[in-house]
Amino acid sequence: MRRRAGLSARLKLTLSYVGFLLLASTLLLAVVWVFLLRYVPDNSQGLLGISPNRYLLLHTFAPAAATALACLLVFGLLGGWVLAGRMLAPLTQITDAARRAGSGSLSHRIRMRGRQDEFRELSDAFDSMLDQLESHVAEQRRFAANASHELRTPLAISRALLDVARKDPARDRGELIERLHTVNTRAIDLTEALLLLSRGDSGSFRRENVDLSLLAEEAAETLLPLAEQRLITLDVTGGAAPAGGSAELLLRMVTNLVQNAVVHNLPAGGTVTVHTGADGDTSVLSVENTGRRLPPELVATLTEPFQRGTERVRTDEHAGVGLGLAIVHSIVRAHGGTLVLAPRPAGGLLVTVRLPADGKQRILADAAG
Questions:
Q1: Which of 62, 176, 233, 348 could form a disulfide with 344 if both were Cys (CB 3.0 to 4.6 A apart)?
Q2: Which of 329, 352, 348 is closest to 340 using CA atoms?
Q3: CB-CB neighbours of 212 under 10 Å
């Protein structure tokens, strides 16, 4: 929005300096008048006929005072203009950096030198904001590229299958339809996961009172056949864990965690333990499973989109799209909670989710991250 042109900040500061200087000078002259000149006799002979009277002093002092005020005015204008320029120089650096950021250049940093003052704090805060913004933009670009790649894969497979069917009419149509169904299901799952991830990031959902222990039991009941098929023991322990938020999203969060713990486990004889409870004003959900040992540097990347642990592609019916823990992280962040992933020394993973028990949302320092 265009605004009317007005006085610059530098000119305003200059005029304020001059005004203050002239006011101080006028007060000084007033003090001289009140405490000195008013006591000088005002007659034609002066004091005892030898001292100057008030009339002579005024006619002698007034021109000199006026000249001094004029000099102070000129000095104030020049000095104030220079001082204002020096004071506002850091603000010019910040403005230039903001213009570069507005044009799309997020790599520029101010890195202001000098002592710690208000402008230095502002520049450091601006540099920190640019760091987070650049990281967020880079993450979004990677996410868009990965999502495009993941969505293109099932479409390309479908196209290839259709081309084969067109060139070979005698091919078994039942097999073709089954493969197309599998590929289409994967594409739908990926699209729904992307939509759910976007919904969690936006935070646009209806909030209600939810008990994480009930959600954990529901998720365990749903995934129990999968656990039994893989010969994995699935246990739910603990007590009530009240939280505020979307029951649908929180159920998806718990389901993703339990499914991830079941799928990424030992080939047989593994365990998955889901525990819920309250810790002061925080509700805690922990999901612990057995499995192969995970290096800490790998665990740190598991919440990034399209990360599938040590296996990039799974071939079973529960092949993921690499968004399970990314969705969990998004939902936890939207509900003002924290998510901690820690590798178990014996193998496997311990995932701990902490949510506000009263449902009040808190703005965390890693909201960008």
A1: 348
A2: 352
A3: 27
